[in-house]
Design a protein that fits this description.
Blueprint: E1 9-14, H1 19-29, E2 38-42, H2 48-59, E3 64-69, H3 73-85, E4 90-92, H4 95-105, H5 115-135, E5 150-154, H6 160-168, E6 174-178, E7 197-201, H7 204-218, H8 229-246, E8 250-252, H9 258-276
Parallel strand pairs: 1-2, 1-3, 3-4, 5-6, 5-7, 7-8
Length: 277
């Protein structure tokens, strides 16, 4: 007959959610045949009044352990002192690592609760914005225009897609719409606030060079209508008329790096936000 396994009662105390400590505890428990661990998690502990009841409850259990992730040195000290007085073993999951990292980086830690959650949220916002830019690139789905933070419009080769991706990395949802003389812009575009739309234009000379390079890489003849001056001027004039109808800000991207244009866009958006407050 097999012996019954003792199931420890593990109290997790955190100044944030406590997921990190629980994950570590479960990973450690899985190394034993029973995998048994009676876990009690207390989250968002930020004062002594919240801490003491957990320690007292743990002291009433014959086989308890406190595992904690707190960045406040004062709370950690109280927990260690009170737990030792009651003969409760403790494990500090983050403290030793923060201390060593501080020495390696030769800097002082911020000691702010919940920073990893903020980092995760920030990361997922960025991913969401990148996915949005891909989904609504090149006018693929006009229904996305209303959901966008920024809508870029312009003729072909005015950096709409690179700008969309750059701004997505700034956590902004960006859609872009190509302006083509033969195609009427989507009706949804004309229902947007003008400050939400940014028009992009460039010099015909620069556009001619860019498009000729594009034709070369595609193995097409340079005399194609796509790169002709007449066609370029026609497209630029048409896009200018559309932008005037929309009353949107216009940025000339000639000889500008994507970063430079993106900063101008961010400045425009900031001014619009301040104006609407």
């Amino acid at each position: 007959m097999e012996n019954d396994h003792i199931c420890p009662v593990i109290y997790i105390v955190s100044d944030s959610i406590g997921e990190t400590a629980e994950f570590v505890v479960r990973a450690a428990a899985s190394q034993f045949d029973s995998g048994c661990a009676d876990i009690h998690r207390t989250s968002f502990v930020n004062n002594e009044e919240q801490l003491i009841p957990v320690i007292e409850e743990a002291s009433e259990q014959p086989n308890s352990l406190i595992v904690y992730t707190m960045v406040s040195p004062e709370l950690c000290l109280i927990l260690e002192k009170e737990s030792k007085r009651r003969n409760i073993p403790t494990i500090d999951v983050m403290g030793p690592l923060i201390e060593i990292l501080g020495k390696l980086m030769d800097t002082t830690p911020r000691l702010e609760p919940g920073l990893i959650r903020e980092l995760n949220e920030d990361y997922f916002r960025k991913i969401e914005a990148v996915e949005f830019a891909v989904k609504y690139d090149d006018g693929k789905d006009p229904r996305g225009l209303e959901k966008a933070d920024i809508v870029l419009i312009g003729i072909s080769r005015t950096s709409k897609t690179p700008l969309s991706m750059y701004l997505a990395n700034k956590r902004l949802k960006v859609a872009n719409v190509p302006i083509v003389p033969e195609v009427e812009p989507p009706e949804e575009l004309f229902h947007l606030p003008s400050g939400k739309i940014i028009g992009l234009t460039t010099s015909p000379q620069m556009l001619n060079q860019v498009r000729e390079e594009r034709l070369k890489t595609m193995g097409l003849p340079l005399k194609a209508d796509y790169a002709s001056f007449e066609r370029i001027l026609e497209e630029l004039e048409y896009s200018e008329r559309i932008m005037k109808r929309l009353r949107c800000p216009i940025i000339n991207v000639t000889n500008k790096a994507v970063e430079e244009t993106a900063n101008k866009i961010l400045q425009i958006i900031k001014k619009e936000e301040m104006r609407s407050e």
